[in-house]
Amino acid sequence: MTNRKLQTEIDRVLKKVQEGLEIFDELYEKVYSAPSPQQKEKYESDLKKEIKKLQRYRDQIKQWASSSDVKDKAPLLTARKDIETDMERFKVCEKETKTKAYSKEGLKQAAKLDPEQQARQKTLEWMQEASTQIESQKEAADAELESLSSGKKKKTNNRDADRIETLGATIEIHNFHLENLDKLMRLLENESVDYRELDEIKDSIDHYIESNDEQDFYHDDEIYDSIKALEAVDDNPELYAPATVHKDEEEKPPAPAPAPPPAPAPAPAPAPAAVLTPAPAIPLPQPLPQSQVKEQAAQAARNREAQQRQQMELQRQQAQAQAKIQQQQAQMKQAQNQQVRQQPARGTMGPLPDAYTGVIRRGDGLPKPAVQPRSVENPASAWPAIAADPDQPKNASSMDAASDAQAEDVSFEAGDRSNILEMLELSHKNIPSPSDSDRPKTYTAHNPFQTHSSFPQAPLQLFDSPAKFESLDIDTLFFIFYYQQGTYQQYLAARELKRQSWRFHKKYMTWFQRHEEPKVTTDEYEQGTYVYFDFETGWCQRIKSEFTFEYSYLEDELQV
């Protein structure tokens, strides 16, 4: 029974060893094919973790191989040998990665090139230097030509015209040499031309660089005729193709590609880091294409125009209502004056005709109907609208002060009362509110992307409340902090994280929390076991023991 259990454990470990060897081979290939130093460093860290895991299996295998309980030891010895082989490969990889270009080891590696490669490299460096010098001379000629062509003089003299013609010819010759040198450098990198042929034209090109600005200089346009490989470029374009990238060039980061259309932020790669390394800056949102920038600017302009039109229409309606009210007031005053002049004496007014339905008492600013008026949407709120308007008269005494001395009661027709009620109703509907003076708040997305029209197009107002952030879990707070850069929500998330005893490390750009009380505490740092949030590789919380937290890197400006 014991032997069977032991054999089962051995089979399980051998299976894990085989899986670990396969993972090691994949990571080993990625280290040497990484396009940037950052990715190469990350792959090397993962490779180191994998080899340490295999080493632990190797120690267990050594114990089993030395035990007398195991009969068949061949699989154990084979697995041990495979692990030790990968250990040697990792040592070589680690040494190459840590070797700096201009260190003693790096210079020794450069010295290991054979004489042919060294001579070819020397010729290539000379051609690059020559191309740089010719390019500088061309830029100087371009600047002088532009200065002469864009002069303020209306008429250029003969001397300037001759100089412009000379500069144009010089620029054409510079372009001729730059084009040929570029082709020759490509051919040399692809080993399609012998470097000895290029050494033969070296003196001629150097003489051209030094003396091409002299007046009696004669340009030899047959410098490159002796190189037969240039004639074959047109017939064999593959000779002019970019050279194969060498190992030492793989470590250089590639040129940045054009920014793609904005997309949601991708999740970090699930490759955990063994040790805490300085984290790079948080990736900012990629710049928008020029077409989208113009489209957004045009949309914003259209929105502003629509808002201005709405405000102008509202002002126009208010002005019309006010003018109509003033007109009605003037008509009422005129009618009252006429009726006063027609009355024989005060208090001797005869019976009112049937057409008169109401009276305006002395000192009242509004008509009080004798019968039930026609229905209004909100009559109770329509009456005080006049008193609330500073442009309206406070009472009728300012409107008919002269007629009050002669008449006690003034009648008016039912049609006038109906018009007044309509004006009051319209005025009540257009009462300005305090919010009309506020500037409209429009939301502009940081990473605009074309989504379905039914999706929410603006963030909810509840995310502006600090109380809402107290109910969010810790992972959501980290997401808001790292993916809502430069917003009020990022500030609220940081504030809540700090309230929950997390502290931001300005060097590593991540959040730390004490896992236990520090073992060492001074005025400048503290040391102990911490929990930190790994936002770059695993998007999870990790524990770092024996970590020294220097107070100079502690963010201590945010107030909780």
Written account of the structure:
The protein has 560 residues and is of the alpha+beta class. It is built from 18 helices and eight strands. The strands form two sheets. Strands 4, 5, 6, 7 and 8 form a five-stranded antiparallel β-sheet that branches. It has a three-stranded antiparallel β-sheet with strand order 2-1-3. α1 (2-33) runs antiparallel to α2, α2 (37-65) runs antiparallel to α3 and α17 (474-483) packs antiparallel against α18 (488-499).
- Binned, the helix content reads 40-55%
Tally the beta strands: 8
User: On the 0-100 scale, what is the average pLDDT?
Assistant: 74
Poorly predicted parts: 242-288, 344-399, 405-412
Kindly estimate the percentage of residues that lie in beta strands according to DSSP.
Answer: 5-15%
The end-to-end distance, rounded to whole angstroms, is: 63 Å
Determine the number of helices (DSSP H or I, runs of at least 4 residues).
Answer: 18
Structural class: alpha+beta
Task: List the quaternary state of the chains.
Answer: single chain
Main sheet makeup: 5 strands, antiparallel
Question: Given the C-alpha coordinates, what overall shape results?
Answer: flat
The ordered H/E elements are HHHHHHHHHHHEEHHHEHHHHEEEEE
Radius of gyration: 44 Å
